[in-house]
Every structure is written in structure tokens, then in C-alpha cells.
Amino acid sequence: MLSLFTARANTPCRTIAALSEASLSLRTLSRRAQHPQALCSASSRASCTWSRDDVNISRRPVVHTPWKHYGIRPASLFSTSTTRRLKLEDEATGSPASRSGTEPQPATASAKLATTLKSTLKLDKPRHEQIYNLPNILTFSRLIATPVVGYLIIHDQHLYAFSLFAYAAFSDLLDGWIARRWNLQTVVGSVVDPMADKLLMTTLVTCLAVNGSLPMPLAALILGRDVSLAVSAFYYRYASLPAPKTMARYWDFSLPSAEVHPTTISKFNTFLQLSLLGTLLCTNLLHDPSATTSAAGGLLLSIQDILGGEEGVKTMIQGMSAIVASTTMYSGLEYTWSKKAVVILGGDEALKRKQGFRGRMIMAGGFGSFIALAAYLWFNGQAEEDLKKEANKKLGTKSA
Predict the structure, then answer these.
(1) In degrees rounded to 5, what are phi and psi of residue 344?
(2) Three-state secondary structure along the chain?
């Protein structure tokens, strides 16, 4: 009976406790209705993680704080790994914040992260040059005109050949000036322009030698120097190229391995060669009827008379040829003893000395063989001229 009376006496207390818990739950639900996103963040190694703010709401009293903002908010702007990395970068760079021992400000960290993301996510677009400009058009036109000039020289069309040569020389000066004046330099132009000049000179030397205007020994010297330089350049490129030595890497000129520095005498020799070739084209006009009968024919004949006639022009050509032959030999041999003409890149000094010596020996052997060929052609030509003179003397005595 006593236990029954005690249970009945405790019933109102339990009822009051249940009612108080129900009212507490109702107040919590009303606050959730007012703030449907009652979540707060919790720091973790993830960039943003979220936890419920009211998981243990039934076990602790709810105290309403007017200054507390409910809703979804990040625990921090960055993850702990990113913040630690930025802090290490600040310490490495010696920023004022790291030296003073204070933590970096969120604004500074956000700016650094934004810069890092931009540099990481930025896609490097391939650079396309505008190659269809006036300097490149002039260069390609000179390249196309070169075989036409050679054809006209061989077929004794000297007026048209000289006209195209004058256009090539003028365009060579003009395209460089335009490219520098209006900032139109391109990688294609820097490669094609010297190639067009070298092709024009090689074509003129070969065709004038075949035509008989240029002596064969001098043509052998000029062509032999260029061929020897090309062969030694191939060796320098192969020897100095870092491993692996593949064809793709060999022709990839973004991998520099050796630098060629033209000497002063080499540049002067190129100028003298072009001057000689232009003079030979001018003298050939005197043997072209279409040139002598033109409006400029009288001027050409007057220049010939000033130089002393045909014999004076011939003497001038021989003197210029001798000067060009001497400068060509000296400039070619200078590449065999000068260590500054070709500089091999790399850190192994012993290997660079060995490669440089081999390259100079290749140049010496190749150009030496062409010098010997030029000497043979010269002596052979002198012997033929002596035989012709003797034959002419015999014919003169017989006729007398």
C-alpha cells in the first residue's frame, strides 16, 4: 500500500517534468522554424566541413544569445594544410608577418591563394605570330627570285638577271628596315632571311662560274668555305647536344648547345663577295645587246671608257677577285684556330675542349681540301693559258 501511495504521489512530478521537456522541445522547434539552417562549421582537414549545432540540444540548456548568428558559415577560409603551407611560404620569404611572429591576415592569405590558383589554372596558350607581313613577303619573294636569277645568268639574259639581283639587294635592305621600324620581327623572318641571302650568294657563285664570268678557283674557295662551315656546324650540334641524342632533339633549336660568333673578317668578306658578284653582273651587261641598246646603254659604255676600256675592266675584276680570295682564305682558316668563333655550352670543360678541337680539325680538313682543289684549278688554268699564248704566237709567226 505504501509503494502504491508513493507511485501515485510521484505521478504529478513526472507529469510536470514531461511537460517542461515538451515545452523545451517546442521552443527549440520554433527556433528551427525561424532559422531553418541551424548548422555551424567545424574545422577539419577538409576545406569546409559542417556539423550540427544542436545535436545535444536536449541535454544542455538553450541560452538565447542575440549576437550569435545562426546559419551556414565556414570554419576558416582555407583548410589547415593550405594555411600551414602559406605560413611556411611566409617564413621562407621572410615576410614582416613571419618575422614579427604574428599569423598572416586572412586577406593576405586569400590574395596569395588567388595568385597561386591563377598561376596553376592559367592555361598557356600557344603564341601565334603574324607571319604574313610585309618584311616576310619581301624575304620570301627574294627566296623565290633566286633560282630565276640563276637561270637567266646561265642563258645569258644579263639585263633581266641584273634587274632581279638589284631587286633582291634592295629588298634585303628594305625588309630589315621595315621590321625594325614597325616592330614586325618574327622567328620565321630571322631564319628565312639569312637563308635567302646564303642561297642567293651560292646560286650567283655557281652560275657565274658555269658561265665563265667568275674564275673556278675562286668559286671553289667561296663554296668550299661555306660547305666546311656547314659540316663543322653539324658536328658541333651533334657533339654538344645533351643526351639522349635523337633526331627530334637535334632539330629542336629551343635546346641550345653551341653558339657561333661570326668574326669581323668574316663579315667583311661577305660584303666583298657581294660587291664582286654585283660587279660581275654589271660587266656582263656590256656583252648583252639588249642592255647596250637600251636607254642606259650609253651610261654603261661611258663607265667602261672611264675604267680604261675592256682591258681596264678586266684588270679591275682580277684585282677584286684576288682580294676576295685572300679574305675568304683568311676568314675560313680563322675558324680553325679561333676558340671564340664557336662556343660550346655546358659545364664539362675538358669535354668542351676536346669537342672544340675536333670541330676545328674538321673545319681545317674540309677547307684545306678545297684550298688544294682551288690551287689545282688555278695552276691548271695557268697552264692552259700558257698553251693558248704559245699557240697564238705560232699562228702569228706562220701568218707573218
Answers:
(1) -90, 130
(2) CHHHHHHHHHHHHHHHHHHHHHHHHHHHHHHHHHCCCCEEECCCCCCCCEEECCCCCCCCCCCCCCCCCCCCCCCCCCCHHHHHHHHHHHHHHCCHHHHHCCCCCHHHHHHHHHHHHHHHHCCCCCCCCCCCCHHHHHHHHHHHHHHHHHHHHHCCCHHHHHHHHHHHHHHHHHHHHHHHHCCCCCHHHHHHHHHHHHHHHHHHHHHHHHHCCCCHHHHHHHHHHHHHHHHHHHHHHHHHCCCCCCHHHHCCCCCCCEEECCCHHHHHHHHHHHHHHHHHHHHHHHHCHHHHCCCCHHHHHHHHHHCCHHHHHHHHHHHHHHHHHHHHHHHHHHHHHCCCCEEECCCCHHHHHHHHHHHHHHHHHHHHHHHHHHHHHHHHHHHHHHHHHHHHHHHHHHHC
- Cis before 96? omega within 30: no
Mean pLDDT confidence for 104-120: 57
**Cα distance between residue 267 and residue 204, in whole Å:** 18
Would you state the cell numbers that stand for residue 334, as one nine-digit string? 680563322
Q: What is the pLDDT of residues 120-169, one digit of tens each?
A: 444 444 455 677 889 999 999 999 999 999 999 999 999 999 999 999 98
Contacts for 234-238: CB closer than 8 Å, 24+ residues apart:
235/358, 235/359, 235/362, 236/260, 236/342, 236/344, 236/355, 236/359
